[in-house]
Amino acid sequence: MKIKLPFWMDKGELQKIALLFEKWWAYVLSAVKFPFNILDEETCGEKILNLIAYQRDVERFDGEPIELFRKRVKYAFLNAKDAGSKAGFIRIFERLGIGKIGVGERIDGIDWDIIKIYITDQQVANNNALLNFVIRKYGRTCRRYDYEIVTFTPTVIHYGEFDHNQQVFYGKLIFKNNRVFTGNHSQTGEVYIAKLN
């Protein structure tokens, strides 16, 4: 905070008093900000972070980097709120930096209690311990989780338009005994347009 005095007072003892008040208000401002800074999960010391993690029921697993632990502590409430739902489980993985995943439940042909997690091989390799920890912490009770590795391959598909025309034929039959039979024959058609992006 900079105290600006009028030009006729900007000298001598008044200038010294202004500097004193600048230092005082800087001290007061730092004292007010201190509780907020010390409880910030992204910038606080590791001992304070461990206390916040204990309060939010977050345990650090072996070999976990401090940046990831800070994220898990920061989003502990949101992750607990999202636990148990399909969309929430996807959001948990995105918040923790694993990336986009897919979740399949009650898939035909397999047991009803198996939940499939569609994930890339690189995500499993880079986050193996975190994946197991997240499933154990935020997964559903009495469910079995199964990883299904998905590989993305860029594909180019050419597309075009095609259509179909229609014609209607009318026929008339005349027999010798003066009976006339008339009938209609129609052929219908539709226009199909396909575009893939």
Keywords:
197 residues; alpha+beta; 3 domains; three-stranded mixed sheet; two-stranded antiparallel ribbon; elongated
Write the layout of secondary structure elements.
Elements: H1 12-38, H2 46-55, H3 66-74, H4 76-82, H5 86-95, E1 102-105, E2 114-119, H6 121-126, H7 128-138, E3 144-149, E4 161-162, E5 168-174, E6 180-186, E7 192-193
Parallel strand pairs: 2-3
Antiparallel strand pairs: 1-2, 4-7, 5-6
Helix pairs in contact: 4-5
Q: Gist?
A:
By secondary structure, the chain is α+β, with helices and mostly antiparallel strands. The protein is built from 7 helices and 7 strands. The protein folds into 3 domains: 32 residues; 94 residues, no CATH class; 33 residues, no CATH class.
Write structural notes for this entry:
- The protein is α+β, with helices and mostly antiparallel strands and 197 residues long.
- The chain folds into three domains: 7-38; 56-149, no CATH class; 161-193, no CATH class.
- It has seven helices and seven strands.
- The strands form three sheets. Strands 1-2-3 form a three-stranded mixed beta sheet.
- Helix 4 (76-82) packs antiparallel against helix 5 (86-95).
- The mean pLDDT is 81.
- This is Phage tail protein.
- It comes from Pasteurella multocida.
